[in-house]
UniProtKB/TrEMBL annotation:
Gene3D superfamilies: Cyclin-dependent kinase, regulatory subunit. PROSITE patterns: CKS_1, CKS_2. It comes from Amblyomma americanum (Lone star tick). This is Cyclin-dependent kinases regulatory subunit. Pfam families: CKS. The keyword Kinase applies.
Amino acid sequence: MSHKNIYYSDKYYDDKFEYRHVVLPKEIAKLVPKTHLMSETEWRGIGVQQSQGWVHYMIHEPEPHILLFRRPLQDSSAPTQAEQIKNDM
């Protein structure tokens, strides 16, 4: 299974969570269950690679090949808006 075509977004934040989305190629997207959110074991099993703590928290039905992940913020790990803008430049 080719993992090189998996796209990982930059992280983005709100007051409580850190977020990212993962875009899967068609051949891997076929393996995503349509009936439930995936456990860490399941998403790792199809080739998604990211640090611990990420939770598959939502299914966006129009785009099931895009996995939505979040994890709780750890004591001010989110950049301020100014820091985020600076990092995006």
